[in-house]
Design brief:
The complex is a heterodimer of chains A (528) and B (315). Chain A has 528 residues and is α+β, with helices and mostly antiparallel strands. Chain A contains 14 helices and 20 strands. Chain B has 315 residues and is mainly alpha-helical. Chain B is built from twelve helices and no strands. Classes of the chains: A alpha+beta (528), B mainly alpha (315).
């Protein structure tokens, strides 16, 4: 008897909680906030950054490996971001600045870049970093045996890396690689790692770098602890003693952990929770436009997508605002071309304002006055692609295209996308800093990320030229022309550029949300 | 019970395990999706995928790959994860305790709910108590575990702030903290398991309560409690123990969802990731361990029968 009553009360409580859910999130703002003396506008006349403390961080996904030369997961990159360093670096305004290298110059024939390294930089194991280490790191990255997907950051396997003296290294490419200094600043796959990181079986479990934090503890892929690198070359940095990282896959649970104080900082919040988190005074939500684009990739080896008029018709049929609302809850800017407004490479060529009539005309011209059937291929790996696909389906119906949706999980999706087994796939590219990254590998004939089969010799010439020179003002007009050709040819149909969102506790200071989605923890300090 | 029976059973268990590993190996290799592509992500292209497949030994004939795995496994080497390159065995062993803790805690909570609820509703069959319990257990059986888990987090963690929403501390490090983190996921698992157990125990008890020997025991003037526990329950135990055995089986796999929701670092979550990544060695290892545990649990249950009912004999 007693048991039944207890059970009933228990279930009633849960049931009440369920009904209360819509209002619960707004009520979770107890006035007890004043006991935390951390107002967001604190006069800078105070002592400034405080040293010490542990930052508790929650990622979304587990890190699949920590070897910079073989990783591809975002979580892995973000850990490496604070553990390894590169010769060059993009600052918060996306200017390329010296980092482990103090200066660099290109040879007359454009084939060789010579870097002068900073002296006195110590690895986490105490040893000083020299040109030998740069040579070792780069060679392991480009070695075909390593099988790295990021080898091209440094160059093809034939690239020669020469030690001139302890602090000077020369890299010679078979063809002029004008943007080599930019390329090695994109991410830490080209970071400098100590060769002691490699164990007997040739694997790297714990990379040893020169970065502000070193990896102190690794519990499989469920917990990782970073500790301050005492001999870090930048004086006075980092401020934090430790960073503890755990993956929490579920969005609700991760946000609860932040709100409840279990963690201080989370990577990614579900876009649909942006508003409620923004209103919570115990949480700081910061955004920045990404350097990315969500797009529809067309299969140019298949009819009717080999006809540019069909592709342009689809591009003209889109209501990008609506796609943005559906895909990412309005936290994005519509795009008709790859480069968004946040990048210095923004060209503003926009020929695809929605024009359903013109779209139908083009389809008729191409021989499809009554439309046709097709299949959209988003992936459950990126929920926003599935949401966008559902709205896209409606929009395509307006011009007579009957689209079905197939949304496999990541592994299967990669198989289909990689082997031309699709009509149109939906995905995104992100962290695109230099113009080259928006155009080259995806659209140049036969290059590694060209999954559409696009081939335009005029375009190829332009992007080849663009990456052979280094000066921004010289390159800008080249890419402007290339952009126009690409957008007109429409192998990719662009939808929107998402906002990068971070959420953290009010006492976390010094964190900057970056458009390239990098998470730099060395300027962070805890005001408590 | 004799030793030859035991040996027979152990031998059969081994055969079953072999069969399981073969079938799993077969299935994950037949399913579309390539671990090399997953490792390389969107950067995968013809050349580096082919090179990586070669390096990982994925181009060898299926039976060769299986035989290789089996040979190594027999020597205790479960190979290396395709994704992280770390040895599979230690990784599995490191994650196993968390899953066991969750499954056992969930089972115990389930039993704490199921036994009293099942017995009482059997005794009071047909009354309001029975109907209410039936409805509640029906709800418990139907509730999706991830929904219940998230609801509990919202109630006890976000709103009330009584318990942490996720995470794990090893019990030897801080017992109190471990318990605090264990409660919500264990209750999630336990409530649903309890609902299932309630129903089975109720029907097992009902069957037994109608037997003649129960009527005789009552006629002899024995107190109701003695009748229920000493006579009825004892005889229902065979069915009940069978159900609990099945429950353990179900629980070890059901915890996967709960592990994901609560970021509980168990084997289930690891196995799920292994499936999504097509990380063959890791998946094989995880399945092998779970299958071995289940086989042993079932063997244990079968042996338990001897103690419960001395009349049982195996010819």
């Amino acid at each position: 008897m007693k048991w039944a009553s207890i059970l009933m009360i228990g279930f009633l409580l849960v049931g009440l909680a369920a009904c209360a859910v819509p209002t619960v999130t707004q009520e979770a703002a107890p006035p007890a906030v004043e006991e935390e003396a951390a107002p967001t506008e604190e006069p800078v006349a105070e002592e400034g950054p405080k040293y010490g403390g542990t930052l508790n961080v929650a990622f979304q996904n587990e890190w699949a490996g920590l070897d910079p030369h073989t990783v591809s997961s975002y979580s892995s990159y973000q850990i490496l971001n604070n553990v390894l360093e590169g010769l060059t670096f993009y600052d918060d305004e996306l200017n390329l600045i010296p980092w482990l290298a103090e200066s660099w110059e290109q040879s007359e024939d454009g084939l060789t870049w010579t870097f002068k390294l900073r002296e006195g930089v110590k690895f986490h194991n105490g040893r000083e970093m020299t040109a030998e280490d740069v040579k070792w790191s780069f060679e392991r990255l480009i070695d075909p045996e390593t099988g790295s997907g990021n080898a091209a950051r440094v160059g093809p396997p034939e690239t020669k890396i020469e030690v001139i003296d302890d602090y000077t290294v020369a890299i010679t490419h078979p063809e002029p690689f004008g943007i080599f200094p930019q390329s090695i600043g994109f991410d830490k796959s080209s970071g400098i790692m100590a060769k002691e990181s490699v164990s007997e079986d040739g694997l790297v479990a714990v990379p040893i770098g020169t970065g502000p934090f070193k990896i102190a503890e690794v519990e499989g892929t469920t917990r990782l602890v970073l500790e301050k690198h005492e001999d870090y070359w930048q004086e006075g940095l980092p401020y934090l003693d430790k960073i503890e990282l755990v993956p929490i896959p579920d969005d609700t649970v991760r946000e609860t952990a932040l709100r409840g104080g279990e963690v201080d900082w989370v990577l990614t919040i579900a876009p649909q929770n942006y508003d409620s988190l923004n209103e919570d005074p115990d949480v700081v939500v910061a955004t920045a436009p990404q350097l990315s684009y969500d797009y529809i990739g067309m299969n140019l080896t298949r009819e009717p997508f080999d006809d540019v008029r069909v592709r342009q018709a689809i591009a003209l049929a889109l209501d990008r605002e609506q796609l943005c609302e559906a895909g990412f809850f309005g936290l994005c800017e519509p795009l008709q071309a790859p480069v968004g407004t946040g990048s210095p490479w923004h060209f503003g060529y926009e020929p695809y304002d929605q024009d359903v009539e013109r779209a139908k005309e083009l389809l008729a011209e191409a021989g499809y006055p009554d439309g046709f059937e097709m299949e959209l291929l988003p992936t459950t790996q990126y929920g926003e692609t599935v949401r966008a696909a559902q709205v896209l389906q409606q929009q395509l119906a307006e011009i007579g295209i009957d689209a079905s949706i197939n949304a496999p999980e990541w592994s299967e999706w990669l198989e289909l996308e990689g082997n031309f087994l699709y009509d149109a796939y939906i995905c995104n590219w992100n962290g695109l800093i230099d113009a080259d990254q928006y155009y080259y590998l995806q659209h140049h004939t036969d290059l590694v990320f060209n999954f559409t089969g696009y081939s335009n010799p005029e375009f190829d010439e332009l992007v080849d030229a663009g990456r052979a020179i280094s000066d921004f003002d010289e390159r800008y007009p080249i890419y402007e022309t290339a952009d126009k050709i690409l957008v007109d040819d429409a192998p990719y149909i662009y939808m929107y550029n998402k906002k990068e969102i971070r959420a953290y506790a009010p006492y976390v200071k010094g964190f900057v949300v970056r458009p390239d989605q990098a998470n730099n923890f060395w300027p962070v300090w805890l005001d408590k | 019970m004799n030793t030859s029976y035991l040996i027979q059973r152990l031998f059969l268990t081994l055969i079953v395990l072999l069969g399981v590993t073969f079938v799993v190996f077969l299935i994950i290799h037949l399913v579309p999706g390539d671990p090399a592509r997953v490792i390389l992500g969107v950067q995968a292209n013809e050349q580096n995928v082919a090179a990586l497949r070669e390096r990982l030994g994925l181009n060898r004939p299926f039976l060769v790959q299986y035989a290789d795995w089996l040979w190594n496994a027999a020597h205790g080497d479960f190979g290396k994860s395709l994704i992280t390159g770390q040895p599979v065995g230690p990784q599995l062993m490191q994650r196993l305790p968390a899953t066991l803790q969750l499954a056992i805690a969930g089972l115990l909570i389930g039993m704490l709910i199921g036994f009293p609820a099942g017995i009482i509703s059997a005794i009071k069959s047909g009354t309001t108590t029975d109907i209410v319990t039936s409805v509640l257990s029906q709800i418990g059986v139907t509730i999706p575990d991830f929904w219940l888990g998230i609801m509990l987090v919202i109630l006890f963690s976000l709103t009330l702030g009584w318990l942490p929403p996720s995470g794990y501390t090893p019990p030897e490090q801080d017992f109190g903290d471990w318990l605090a983190h264990l409660i919500l996921p264990a209750v999630t698992v336990g409530v649903i398991s309890g609902a299932i157990q309630t129903r089975f125990i109720r029907s097992a008890m009902l069957e037994v309560l109608h037997e003649n020997y129960v009527r005789s025991a009552r006629a002899k003037g024995l107190g109701e409690r003695t009748v229920i526990i000493r006579h009825a329950l004892r005889n229902a135990m065979i069915t009940i123990v069978t159900v609990i055995g099945l429950q353990i089986t179900a629980l070890l796999s059901a915890v996967v969802v709960v592990e994901v929701v609560f970021a509980w670092p168990g084997l289930g979550r690891l196995a799920l990731d292994a499936v999504l990544d097509r990380d063959y060695p890791l998946l094989q290892g995880a399945v092998f361990i779970v299958a071995a545990m289940l086989a042993l649990v079932n063997l244990g249950i079968d042996l338990l029968y001897f103690f419960i009912d001395p009349r049982i004999e195996y010819a």
